[in-house]
């Protein structure tokens, strides 16, 4: 800590930083998760010392012993968040306090050290400010941040780790899905579930995503873009996609999304869209929705739209659903009006084009 209580990072500049001309070329078409900035933040934790060693340093490989606990017992959590370029050339984070709370909750669920929320937020701020030239200015592009923490104690015993490494890296990104706004085709998984009551479904940990990949591969083989999971008990209720929450839009203009019962990730984009929907005068319900009812409502026309949402994809319309027992089209199979309105409202706030009435933006410079 500095004398005024603010965090003070030891800084090591990257001697091999990407030249400005090459960086600008990369920012023209960064894709998603393929290009990275020059630096990263690292902070360490031990039971005896607490949080210490705040550093901004060159992005490079982590040196870990083969017996490090993360390799054997999946002691890992992460977050996904973005920094946005503003019209006046400044930059902002979107609801970093919400990411900090979820990160802390994920750590608690996995028996990991809980990082103070102000330390998490200041680490993300510091990285973006230091690598500010990597924030894209092109339409719809942003700087994606990936803060994560691993159990770094060297031991093979089945036990909570006494040491941790927190790291934050950044990647300039464009659209998550190739093709932009085209509607997704979902595979309704029957053989796999994402999470069960009492499990880690509400935590943002790597194991949840690893467990979804076999179902995702199955869906890709069936010509689908993403997989949608049902609950683990009755195999009846729609829960979420492999990495996104889901909404349904009905003929009366109301929205519905599955409730947070511990098996669904509490998405920050999900929460923001609930608020924005209500701002628009729409009725938004957090209630269970059955897979069979989804098909029935789509076929009758009662269901007009469905869309997925998350930090990476923002809002992604859903056009078709396929499965062993289900096959149906939603509306005309294309992006819907409500999804488009909500996406525009959210991104206009994030990019500083609309008033921030909920104080969601954390301006950096």
Automatic annotation (TrEMBL):
Organism: Mesorhizobium waimense
Pathway terms, separated by semicolons: Amino-acid biosynthesis; L-leucine biosynthesis; L-leucine from 3-methyl-2-oxobutanoate: step 4/4; Amino-acid biosynthesis; L-isoleucine biosynthesis; L-isoleucine from 2-oxobutanoate: step 4/4; Amino-acid biosynthesis; L-valine biosynthesis; L-valine from pyruvate: step 4/4
Source species taxonomy: Bacteria, Pseudomonadati, Pseudomonadota, Alphaproteobacteria, Hyphomicrobiales
Physiological role: Acts on leucine, isoleucine and valine.
Signal peptide boundaries: none
Official protein name in the record: Branched-chain-amino-acid aminotransferase
A molecular function (GO) term: L-isoleucine-2-oxoglutarate transaminase activity
EC number annotated for this UniProt entry: 2.6.1.42
Family: Belongs to the class-IV pyridoxal-phosphate-dependent aminotransferase family.
CC cofactor: pyridoxal 5'-phosphate
Matching Pfam families: Aminotran_4 (PF01063)
Reaction catalysed by this enzyme: L-isoleucine + 2-oxoglutarate = (S)-3-methyl-2-oxopentanoate + L-glutamate; L-leucine + 2-oxoglutarate = 4-methyl-2-oxopentanoate + L-glutamate; L-valine + 2-oxoglutarate = 3-methyl-2-oxobutanoate + L-glutamate
Modified-residue entries (N6-(pyridoxal phosphate)lysine), positions: 204
Domain of life: Bacteria
């Amino acid at each position: 800590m500095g004398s005024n209580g603010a965090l003070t990072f030891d800084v090591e500049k990257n001697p091999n930083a990407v030249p400005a001309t090459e960086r600008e070329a990369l920012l023209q078409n960064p894709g998603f998760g393929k290009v990275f900035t020059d630096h990263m933040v690292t902070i360490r934790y031990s039971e005896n010392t607490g949080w210490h060693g705040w550093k901004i340093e060159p992005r490079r490989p982590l040196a870990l012993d083969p017996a490090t606990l993360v390799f054997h017992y999946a002691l890992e959590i992460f977050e996904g968040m973005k920094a946005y370029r503003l019209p006046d050339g400044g930059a902002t984070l979107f609801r970093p306090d919400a990411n900090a709370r979820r990160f802390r909750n994920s750590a608690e669920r996995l028996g990991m050290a809980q990082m103070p929320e102000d330390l998490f937020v200041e680490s993300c701020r510091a990285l973006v400010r230091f690598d500010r030239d990597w924030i894209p200015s092109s339409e719809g592009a942003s700087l994606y941040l990936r803060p994560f923490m691993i159990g770094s104690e060297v031991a093979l015993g089945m036990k909570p780790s006494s040491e941790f490494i927190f790291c934050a890296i950044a990647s300039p990104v464009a659209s998550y899905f190739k093709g932009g706004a085209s509607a997704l085709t979902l595979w309704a998984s029957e053989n796999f579930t994402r999470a069960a009551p009492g499990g880690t479904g509400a935590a943002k940990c790597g194991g949840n995503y690893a467990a979804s990949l076999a179902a995702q591969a199955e869906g890709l083989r069936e010509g689908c873009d993403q997989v949608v999971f049902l609950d683990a008990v009755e195999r009846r209720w729609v829960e979420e996609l492999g990495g996104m929450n889901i909404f349904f839009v009905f003929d009366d203009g109301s929205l519905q999304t599955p409730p947070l019962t511990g098996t669904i990730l509490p998405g920050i984009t999900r929460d923001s869209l609930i608020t924005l929907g209500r701002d628009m005068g729409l009725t938004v319900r957090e209630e269970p929705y059955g897979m069979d009812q989804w098909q029935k409502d789509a076929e009758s026309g009662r269901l007009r739209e469905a869309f997925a949402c998350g930090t990476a994809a923002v809002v992604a319309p859903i056009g078709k659903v396929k499965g062993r027992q289900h096959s149906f089209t939603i509306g005309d199979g294309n992006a819907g009006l409500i999804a488009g309105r909500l996406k525009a409202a959210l991104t206009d706030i994030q990019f500083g084009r609309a008033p921030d009435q909920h104080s969601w933006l954390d301006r950096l410079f």
